[in-house]
Amino acid sequence: MDIGKVAKTAVEQIASYPSISKPERWKRMLKSAAHGHRPAPVDHYFWPNAILGQGLLAAYKATGEKEYLLSVLAYLRQWKTAGFPIHYVDNIMNGSLALWTERFLLQETVWEGQEILLELCREAQNACAAWLKAADRTGAGIFPYRHHHPDWLFADALGMVSPFLCGYGAQKKDPGLLEDGVRQLAQFLERGMDARTGLPYHGYDEKSGMKYGIIGWGRACGWMLMGLSESLLWIPKTHEKYDVLCTACRELLEAVFAWQREDGGFSWQLQAQEGHRDSSAEGMIGTAVLTACRAGVFGGQRVKLPEAAAAGRTFAERALTGAVSMEAGVPELIFPKIKLPEHVRGWCDGLCRALDSSIEGARVRDCSGECRGFAEYPQVYGSYPWGTGSALAFFAGVCYNRK
Fold it and tell me: What is the pTM of this model?
């Protein structure tokens, strides 16, 4: 894969997606009116844009090409100019983007107007934190994916919300938000999984307990793994759920890669071995593998909890009283090069082969279209921003690690 070519596509897409023609706008309005709804706002700061940004940050780390980081900063600046609009939990991914961009800026001192750029990142983070603190929650304290289904919890939200909650909570010493991020993950592990395969359903209804969607939808697995692996970078090892989440991440990766195809890729639904490959699921899962290794999921001793962990209080309560530390592991957060275990290297080599076959010029093909909800998985494949961003993040991560 030519990282530069795909990164150029990502630079173009993050600044322009979605570009909706007038006929398409009218079509959306008429369709919404027919169902008695107001048309959904055209959102230029949605999860596909955030995934493009993640890919560009990874490409910047791998190549040192400042254009990639500058394009992410330009995107965050546009979001600020628009007033940091947040319509859904999807927009919270921009908060994670701002967290990582801030860390990259802090590692260097050569940026003109660096303090202004850092302030931009912090304003974006604070906007996300404020929205979450005021947002509605389910009875179990979870952020619903959509307000019109307040008890439906989607795997998608794990990758969109938990990394920001854990990252912001750890960096800003806000144990309540960090606890919210952990709760999102722990509840889904308890209520949204298939016991036989170890794979997630697409989601579940909190009130009825009913599980919805298909088992092992590729992007659901990607969302969940991204949520677990990225959150584990921030969650202090003194947290009572740290070992549980670390083990869950490793076991889910093993359950997912049990369905890796002979060509190295993943089908849109993992068990549909003769079905179409999905490059976005592959990119998300592959990026999560690298992040999980960085978080120590495959190595090291299980951390012993301090005596304070047995006190019966929540981690947030103990952190506020100083009984446990809020410090996250700094080495993990500055992207050190990592030694991949042999079996993990085999997984990644297979994914590289599969994804490379989907690169055509500057485009990433074989990406499945946008899902519309539980059990609505269109069998349409092509080139979409979420395929571009996730594949770029994975390839750039592999490239950086091999330098």
Answer: 0.90
